[in-house]
Design a protein that fits this description.
By secondary structure, this protein is α/β, with parallel strands linked by helices. It has twelve helices and 14 strands. Strand 4, helix 5 and strand 5 form a beta-alpha-beta unit.
């Protein structure tokens, strides 16, 4: 603990109810002798959250200081959907499932701190990972005066054995399987699951199939393809097979389609913002389908100039999210440009789901820019004068001709 900083009086902890954050809860109380408020977010991780409430109460947290909130709709509507308007993919493959959840958690941590009069927030991210950066950059962007406590960077509980000893000394319940080394670490929300560490640390070794929790093995998926239709309005999915649904419900339904057909598995070695490479196993079943569908409707509704510019901006936009800059002015500037591009991205896409793959097989829209009259190989009835192409080619070839003439002259 730094000697220069006074002890916090009240801390809002991002609390999962698991062993690590339960240890952090008790450590905060013993190390700082402060009041602790717990915040547990339902982001669609698929776990019952009431045990987190019961555990917090058992560990001495007052009932009015236990916050458990269902944020699934806000998560998809205000974070996932804006990101998917950009077709954001980090390093060509990763759909940013963990990255996009952190700013929402941080937002509520800061808001609850204001509501409860807390002078600090705390998280359970380690000092090696990206999440510490994401939590803290978001918190400071929303409240520059907030204090952020990161126990993994402060305490001396540097091994699983010492964590277990601390838990036992403070009567923190320990699940039987937590007494040994966990085979891997899992983070989950409605968009994805992320598995890292232990049996996954050697990138030369294939991940065991038991690591995958949200999807059937593609080889075990149905032998018959399934076709679905996803409808969009201004870049956001609004319906599946003609049935209007809320954002979180749409992602939940797409997750089920993806699970059934083994869609969305990724074995990925990424470059962390803190400098090291990390191997992760990701499952993003619904998100993988959503990305394909969104690109499918953009193909007929988005102008080429806008689309190509948007694609060139996407890597920077994805990197900002990955690195924790959701609440930065540059991300908001890019978002404004991206959202402008989506004004006519409205229509329906038909998708084929089969053994780990999703493919667009049809798309239609009242906002379509596709003109069959212009591209037909049959008589176009004057829609396009092919002789116009000659002048177009000559103008574009002019600088190439001048370059070639100069190079030939210099060689002679």
């Amino acid at each position: 603990m730094s000697a220069q900083k006074p002890k916090p009086k009240k801390v809002v902890l991002a609390y999962s109810g698991g062993l690590d954050t339960s240890i952090i809860l008790k450590w905060l109380k013993t190390e700082y002798d402060c009041e602790v408020v717990t915040f547990t977010a339902d982001l669609g991780q698929g776990e019952e959250l009431e045990p987190a409430r019961e555990k917090a109460l058992m560990l001495g947290i007052r009932p009015e200081n236990v916050f458990i909130e269902d944020l699934r709709e806000e998560f998809v509507r205000d974070f996932v959907f804006p990101m998917f308007r950009a077709n954001a993919v980090y390093e060509g493959l990763y759909l940013l499932g963990t990255s996009i959840a952190r700013p929402l958690i941080s937002k509520r941590l800061v808001e609850i701190a204001a509501e409860t009069g807390a002078d600090a927030v705390a998280h359970g991210a380690t000092g090696k990972g990206n999440d510490q950066v994401r939590f803290e950059l978001s918190a400071y962007a929303l409240n520059p005066e907030i204090r952020v406590i990161a126990p993994w960077r402060e305490w001396d509980l540097t091994s699983r054995t010492r964590l277990i000893e601390f838990a036992e000394a403070h009567q923190i319940p320990i699940a039987r399987d937590k007494r040994g080394e966990a085979p891997f670490s899992v983070d989950a929300n409605l968009l994805h699951t992320s598995s890292e560490g232990k049996v996954l640390e050697n990138p030369a070794e294939e991940a065991p199939d038991y690591v995958f929790q949200r999807t059937v093995h593609p080889e075990d998926a149905p032998d018959q393809p399934e076709f679905i239709e996803v409808s969009f309005e201004m870049g956001d999915a609004t319906a599946i097979n003609g049935q209007a649904m809320s954002p979180a419900t749409i992602l939940t339904e797409l997750n089920e389609y993806g699970r059934k057909h083994g869609i969305g598995r990724l074995d990925f070695v990424e470059n962390r913002f803190v400098g090291m490479k990390s191997r992760g196993i990701y499952e993003t079943p619904g998100g993988t389908i959503l990305l394909e569908a969104h690109r499918g409707i953009e193909q007929i509704t988005l102008d080429s100039g806008a689309g190509h510019l948007k694609d060139s901006l996407m890597p920077r936009y994805a990197e900002l999210i990955y690195n924790g800059f959701w609440f930065s002015p540059e991300r908001e500037m890019l978002q404004a440009a991206i959202d402008k591009s989506q004004e006519h991205v409205t229509g329906t896409v038909r998708l084929k789901l089969y053994k780990g793959h999703v493919r667009t097989v049809g798309r239609w829209s009242d906002h379509s820019l596709y003109s069959e009259a212009h591209v037909t190989f049959e008589d176009d009835a004057g829609a396009y004068d092919q002789t116009d192409a000659a002048g177009f080619i000559q103008l574009n070839a002019l600088r190439l001709k001048l370059l070639a003439a100069r190079n030939r002259r210099l060689k002679s």
